Amino acid sequence: FVIQECYVQNTAREYAKIYAAEAEPLEGFGEVPEIIPIFLVHRPANNIPYATVEEELVGEFVKYSVRDGKEVNFLRRDSEAGQKCCTFQHWVYEKTSGSLLVTDLQGVGMKLTDVGIATLAKGYKGFKGNCSISFIEQFRALHQCNKYCEMLGLKSLRTTHQKQRKATSMKSKNLPNSSPIKKTVPKKAREPRDFISSEH
């Protein structure tokens, strides 16, 4: 368990570094959330031979993303750190074509720790997360884009679904004037959307 905790947090940290490299140069984006490193320590003389060590975070500890999606967290929605964490989730989701999501973003200000990762059942590039696939489904349903999502040019998850639904219903009618539909469909067709798994 301890080894997996290190593996997950340090993997999420690598995604956060790439996100920072893309977001920081954008005018007006400002500070970017950082996932602090976690280290595995082997203590052969101890009854519990493995332990983790990380920087101590001092200040108000806030959960910016929640596992079940039911809790309304105003600090997540209204604070700069909370909005940037939600944008980070959206960015990772888009980067991995909806195959991976960093969850349980929590910490003090922009410094985050004890995060989780959800992946599709088959994993992503050989990596399997430690959280349920249902987190990906919840994120897709509940995420509300903010100005930081817009700055990064991320596609709204809501409009993508609506456009697809509209395009499908219009196509089935075989309208003769279907040229505007053709413009929107090819872009969306590349995005894998059939993720819903029966596993919980």
Please explain how this structure is put together:
The chain is an alpha+beta fold. The protein has a single domain, classed as Protein kinase-like fold (Alpha-Beta Barrel), CATH 3.20.200.10. It is built from seven helices and eight strands; from the N terminus they run H-E-E-E-E-H-H-E-E-E-E-H-H-H-H. It has helices spanning 2-23, 74-78, 80-95, 134-142, 147-151, 157-172, 179-189; strands at residues 34-35, 38-42, 50-54, 62-63, 100-103, 106-108, 111-113, 116-119. The chain has a four-stranded mixed sheet with strand order 1-7-6-4. Strands 2-3 form a two-stranded antiparallel ribbon. The two termini are 20 Å apart. Mean pLDDT is 80; it is low at 161-200.
Q: How many domains make up the 3D coordinates? A: 1
Structural class: alpha+beta
Strand order of the largest sheet: 1-7-6-4
Distance between the termini: 20 Å
Low-confidence stretches: 161-200
Mean pLDDT: 80
Q: For this structure, what is the CATH homologous superfamily? A: MHCK/EF2 kinase
Number of helices: 7
Order of H and E elements: HEEEEHHEEEEHHHH
Number of strands: 8
Mind telling me the C-alpha Rg?
A: 19 Å
Which word captures the global form? globular
Helical residue percent band:
40-55%
**Main β-sheet description:** 4 strands, mixed
Q: Bin the strand percentage.
A: 5-15%
CATH architecture: Alpha-Beta Barrel
CATH topology: Protein kinase-like fold
CATH class descriptor name? Alpha Beta
